[in-house]
């Protein structure tokens, strides 16, 4: 039975593609749903999502849509899926879509629910200095991230954990964990547990401005370190400085003590000092003991 499951996978990012590949190896996917190609790079050339690239490499049918409207839902319904699996997708699924799968619509969420519901659990975990995170598989409902818990696994954060490394680790764990949940449903051993909604915490959607730091009002080292790791690879911690020409440029502060002036490659603090001595004093205040 396991090799004839019909599974529709919804995801967009390189992190989604991690779980997509793990699931496809065990249960070949019937359809991948992702957003349309987006302009990327300096030339703003259209680039497919990571999940579309993987699907194309494995000849998996792809539905590209930026809106889960009636037409999109109808196309998914034609598959008659046993499961719908959502991983780092970004769009809210309408109730009409949640009702389609034979067994359940499953979400791979990057936190130990009910903590850190919402769009940004990984960076929020790092910002708050948590030592333990994890992955939760839930049966999806209309309320965001509020469905019954089907499985959870914990993950211990490393000292230098970034959002990039955390999402990479959690999506690997999530991909493996959702396989167990699928097997449980097939064997009639699923064990949904209602969340304690009173303990729920909600994350917000971050913007570019969240990463801005005022060089005239330096943050303490711990806060800055957490921000740099939480906001990598986006929106990054950044500020504006005036260089010798009088022009203002954006400077990004990256993990591992790297600095990236606008239009340049990342460099060490020492390299920045040699190249931009006139603004080094401002920057150095952020890293003063």
UniProtKB/TrEMBL annotation:
CDD domains the UniProt entry points to: FMT_core_Met-tRNA-FMT_N (cd08646)
GO (cellular component) term, any one: cytosol
Organism: Candidatus Curtissbacteria bacterium RIFCSPHIGHO2_01_FULL_41_11
SUPFAM superfamilies associated with the record: FMT C-terminal domain-like, Formyltransferase
Short name of one Pfam family: Formyl_trans_N
Record-given protein name: methionyl-tRNA formyltransferase
Domain of life: Bacteria
Gene Ontology terms, MF aspect: methionyl-tRNA formyltransferase activity
EC numbers for this chain: 2.1.2.9
Lineage start: Bacteria, Candidatus Curtissiibacteriota
Domain Formyl transferase N-terminal: 5-182
């Amino acid at each position: 039975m396991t090799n004839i499951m019909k599974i529709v996978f919804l995801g967009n990012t390189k992190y989604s593609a991690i779980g997509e590949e793990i699931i496809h190896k065990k249960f070949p996917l019937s359809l991948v749903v992702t957003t349309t190609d987006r302009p990327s790079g300096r030339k703003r050339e259209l680039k497919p999502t990571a999940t579309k690239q993987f699907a194309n490499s494995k000849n998996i049918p792809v539905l590209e849509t930026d809106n889960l409207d009636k037409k999109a839902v109808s196309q998914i319904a034609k598959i008659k899926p046993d499961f719908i699996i959502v991983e780092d997708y970004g769009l809210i699924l309408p109730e009409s879509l949640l009702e389609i799968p034979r067994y359940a619509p499953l979400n791979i969420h990057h936190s130990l629910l009910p903590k850190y519901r919402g769009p940004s659990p990984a960076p929020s975990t790092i910002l708050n200095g948590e030592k333990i995170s994890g992955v939760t598989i839930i049966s999806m409902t209309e309320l965001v991230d509020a469905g019954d818990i089907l499985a959870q696994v914990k993950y211990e954060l490393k000292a230098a954990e970034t959002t990039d490394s955390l999402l990479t680790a959690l999506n690997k764990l999530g991909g493996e964990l959702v396989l167990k949940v699928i097997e449980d449903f097939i064997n009639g051993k699923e064990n949904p547990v209602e969340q304690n909604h009173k303990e729920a915490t909600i994350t917000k959607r971050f913007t570019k401005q969240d990463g801005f730091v005022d060089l005239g009002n330096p943050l303490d080292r711990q806060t800055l370190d957490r921000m740099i790791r939480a906001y990598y690879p986006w929106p990054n911690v950044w500020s504006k400085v005036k260089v010798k020409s009088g022009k203002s440029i954006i400077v990004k502060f990256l993990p591992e003590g790297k600095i990236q002036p606008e239009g340049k490659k990342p460099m060490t603090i020492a390299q920045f000092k040699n190249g931009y001595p006139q603004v080094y004093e401002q920057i150095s205040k952020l890293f003063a003991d």
